[in-house]
Amino acid sequence: KNYEVAASNGHVRDLPKSQLGIDVEHDYEPKYITIRGKGDILANLRKEVKKADKIYLATDPDREGEAISWHLSKALKLEEKKQVYRISFNEITKNAVKASLKQAREIDMNLVDAQQARRMLDRMVGYRISPLLWAKVKRGLSAGRVQSVALRIICDREEEINAFIPEEYWSLEGDFQVKGEKLSLIHI
Question: For strand 13-14 and strand 33-34, is the pairing parallel, antiparallel, or unpaired?
């Protein structure tokens, strides 16, 4: 009864669909836009933020959830608010929610960075490979998921393994007794 709950219904910002959305000339800076249809939700959340003393971001406890919290923080300009916390829980029960409030923390930028890297790799690979799939296989196919990136990494690694030329080498060890000495000399 002491809390007002408002939902973002998932992601509120993303890379634009009509372009790459990543500035490769400037340290791969992503260019995020508000997702179509999320404007009204963000407007409602802004009203709620103005009334709140504290903000608790309670999105899923994974890198996507962490990214949603970060995007909400940016879209709602929460960094200007003093008391913004990230909470997470794996079950929607009174005890789980109360426990998460006691363990409130900041947004984990390592998880946010991991999600952004995955999203940008999806985009960079997908935008380059999908047109090739359309031309060679079937129109409408998409290579823009992380599986494509993972497959690329696996293929590159397999090529490295196949290109490896083993070189013969030897290691010699010796244990020498010096006359008149109690300890032996070891030479490697």
Answer: antiparallel
CB atoms under 10 Å from CB of 177, counted, come to 10
Q: What is the pTM of this model?
A: 0.72
**Residues in contact with 33: Cβ distance below 8 Å, sequence separation at least 6, in sequence order:** 13, 14, 15, 16, 21
Report how far apart the first and last C-alpha atoms of the chain are (Å, whole number): 73
Pairwise CA distance, residues 10 & 79, whole Å: 20
Condensed to tens digits (0 to 9), the pLDDT of residues 24-47 reads: 899 999 999 999 999 999 999 999
Task: For 120-162, write each residue's pLDDT tens digit.
Answer: 988 887 777 777 888 888 887 776 666 666 778 888 999 999 9
The residue count of the chain comes to 188
* Exposure letters 8-45 (e unless 16+ CB within 10 A, then b): beebbbbbeeeebbbeeeeeeeeebeebeebeebbeeb
Closest to 17 in 3D by CA, of 119, 149, 86: 119
What are all long-range contacts of 101-105, with beta carbons under 8 Å and residues at least 24 apart?
A: 101/56, 104/56
